[in-house]
Automatic annotation (TrEMBL), chains A, B, C, D:
A Pfam family recorded for this sequence: Cyclase
Domain of life: Bacteria
The protein's name: Cyclase family protein
InterPro entries: KFase/CYL (IPR007325), KFase_sf (IPR037175)
Length: 294, 294, 294, 294
């Protein structure tokens, strides 16, 4: 990123009109999909989602203590004696960092507005979301995914600020060039951590500019924004700029170690990527199980 | 089905061992997957899931009344003034008939046992499910899907009992033969209804026998078991036999009208089918957004 | 209220210090309690709470549709085969107008502040309430209650604006004078309604001034603020002034017809009133079952 | 209890008819209430409920981890920018041992039946409770309470089996005789614990027989049934016999240290006891804030 580029330059607000809700998903064309399908040759599938074991919601004499901050809680239901079926109620907090989820564009407001420049108060009401919600994902997303492994067989150093140069270097190693509309999948070798002694690496504004220049359609990674921020001036560039201004949907908390192993084994870092969260409209985020198909 | 076949004959208990949790998903082989991929040529995608608009959980002066029996409820969360992000809590009842969901094998017990013959009390505890849960779907399912449209451009008559002959006739119309490991997608032209004046059609035991003979891996349909039962002797054959005894996962409440239209338009009724619900283990069912890829 | 009195004059902010969380509950003294106890002579009890039948949270084949906007939802829990106990999970929206509940002082902010002048952002965080919450009610409230029946054997006209003169007239009929620290219980003969053809009566700013002059400790009534407002300049005087500025806890949605009948039968309109919601701290409201003891 | 008394002898099934839902609350008469009121002299109130701080339901970047097994979870709600009011959704598990709650008679089945001999399957359905629920408590309970402090200024030894003789000795110390219809409040000096190295004391069948002979209307205590059982033959006598067979409502998890201190200070161990949980019908248990009034 040159000095003349500002955060304000990193914006797709208006690029696809004032009513748009798809953001960078607009970049996925028939050509993108054809390119994606060419990567699917054997049908071998790798999930990019963390497995989630729900915590029991039941207390009292019936249950052991639940672990802290469960993303999904489960209450097994009584269905008669003998039970006619086994069922449950689930309580889900989609943005829990332990849950692989897809952020809707409305998730992060900027100065009282949400993508692509709509007043927050018009887009979100106490009873639901009217613009920029998961409705954009209701039909699913199919595109080509490319894995950029920033630390093969290793992990990034703590608090490492990921730049465009890091992404260039990883891309060079893969031998594949990320084309417009492709999904960018990043591996840093980390699990989510708030441990101040072990600060996570994270994206810089420079990396977001790289994504904008390459016209990435979707981001997925085991790292994202750093905790604490790598640049206190722009505390969460992936969310505040990538999601909110570029309109680039984010898959938070992806699990990519298995994917990296398969890519290394096969010697290829591009794949068909399908993203099909529950067809839930009007939410700010939704759990997802992205599928990399080789 | 001949007279000599009984319900007990329609069972896969033990076919893949006493510890199995995959059921008919075992039928999906490398060959199945290769066959499936051959159907994906352009990347056009059709969802088989009903769109769900969550009901607001908020009452009081803030919200209008919610519709009856919402499958997903949403409470928008306070995240400060001004809000640092928009988020929600979701309350989900996966087996709600208005929600397209994937039934786990443990969902329906038979005489105190669940697939493949395990005591229910071992498989399900008050705090969760230990056997036959959605854990089997955690990695996603990729196979070939074949649509059998039982009433093209129309709908089945009320209370119609679907037999193997009906499935044969529809298959003949498609020009594709359902092979072992394929997913069976059925269109009857119905939406879920409890209206006694408008009773739903549904599968007979004879149709389940057909699925067993063809070794269907997964069932999806806009019809399933009839309400009220078409045969009072075997009230819910798709669930009690197909799911519980054959170990065949069911996608309840699929929406297949759009799929049928695309199949008719393209003149082909087979497609790549990916099923990737949230990677939630230990549940009896989970919302899903199946993707038919052409 | 004379013209010289403004809303700002109707405030107790600072009256009991900058740290206060009790508001007008400070008005309940040993003398108030002794006066209250003198009204309890036989132990006959009348509840001021609406009975609530929870709505089942279960959907699917198991449950009929739930009624709209339930204040309490119930999911019956599986506790084994045979069940070792019957239990449930409850989902509660305390401020639902169908639920008799006690509003905490923090419930309504005024210009970014809450009683007694604390910044909202200090008092409420995304993870809970730090000031002005139901913690103030944790020990329960015991005081004398006085019923002012504004429409004996009848109901107030639709959209009637209740004034101090209305309260004076009703008090005159009872033959009891409301003393500082007493709870004011109001009957208007209404159930909560949003029906625009049947607009609820409600309190005016003049009535709130009356409560301030009498030093009411707690308000309970089957009417409260009108829908739509009786004065568009001050849309919700009971909540925006009575609760937020006077610091007077409100019991919303009280049911007082049974109480009025007993008062008429006994010929006395004062009683011991105990208010003991679940000892839940840190909430903005809580369901309550006030007890009038004669 | 003599040898000739069996568990079956300790039953009130049928004592108040086959349709009864009140159980030992029938023992509270006008005379009981008058006796109770005579104990209320100054209006000093002591709560018998544990204070509950709700756990935040929010995960993600917004919240710290929740503590294990919270009895009440809270999600603060978005109500606009600026917020028009502060509100929440609460998720409550009434039978959590950390929550002071009132057990309904239906809570514990005995051999497929619930008090007073009704088939469980008639009393409880997947969508709610039809008999023996908290409906019995909807109007509140007012009676005299008597504190029996089993270990003044101390606590009972671990795993101590409480007998009728223990209760007799404590009653002798108080100088008050427990009369029919009174509530029995027991202090053992314990908090709920599952720590096997620190096993809780608990009631024996002999103590339950004592309660039956004295016709106790309600039980409240900081101890109840022992974990692990003090008698493996009758693992939970207070619940399995006292609640289920005597029909005696139980207040689980009461906090009585403050009460014991006031009783000792005043030199009297009887008081007016009011029990007024939210007027929630059809539940198996409900949080409660019992008030001892002196």
């Amino acid at each position: 990123m040159t000095d003349s580029e500002s955060i304000d330059g990193l914006s797709n607000w208006g690029r696809w009109g004032a009513e748009d809700e798809l953001g960078t998903l607009n970049l996925i064309t028939d050509e993108t999909r054809a390119r994606a399908l060419r990567e699917a040759r054997t049908g071998r599938v790798v999930s990019l989602a963390r497995p989630i074991d729900p915590a029991s919601m039941m207390g009292g004499p019936f249950a052991p203590p639940t672990p802290p901050s469960p993303p999904v809680q489960q209450a097994m239901l009584y269905t008669g004696v003998p039970p006619m079926g086994m069922a449950e109620v689930l309580v889900v907090t989609p943005h829990n960092p332990g849950l692989t989820h897809l952020d809707a564009l409305v998730h992060i407001p900027v100065d009282g507005q949400v993508y692509p420049g709509r007043p927050l108060t018009d887009a979100v009401t106490p009873t639901g979301v009217l613009h920029g919600s998961t409705t954009a994902f209701a039909d699913g997303v199919l595109t080509r995914g490319v894995l950029l492994d920033l630390a093969p067989d290793d992990r990034l150093p703590p608090a490492h600020p990921v730049t465009g140069a890091d992404l260039d270097a990883a891309e060079h190693r893969t031998g594949v060039r990320l084309e417009p509309g492709d999904a960018l999948v990043v591996r840093g070798g980390w699990e989510f951590s708030r441990d101040p002694a072990n600060p996570m690496p994270g994206m810089t504004l420079d990396a977001i500019a790289w994504m904008r220049h390459r016209d990435v359609s979707v981001y997925a990674g085991d790292i994202g924004d750093a905790h604490p921020p790598v640049d206190s001036q722009v505390p969460m560039p992936l969310h505040l700029v990538g999601l909110a201004r570029l309109g680039m949907p984010l898959i938070d908390g992806a699990e990519v170690d298995a994917l990296a192993a398969v890519c290394a084994e096969l010697g290829r870092y591009a794949f068909l990527l399908t993203i099909a969260p529950p067809r839930l409209r009007g939410a700010t985020g939704v759990p997802v199980n992205p599928q990399a198909i080789f």
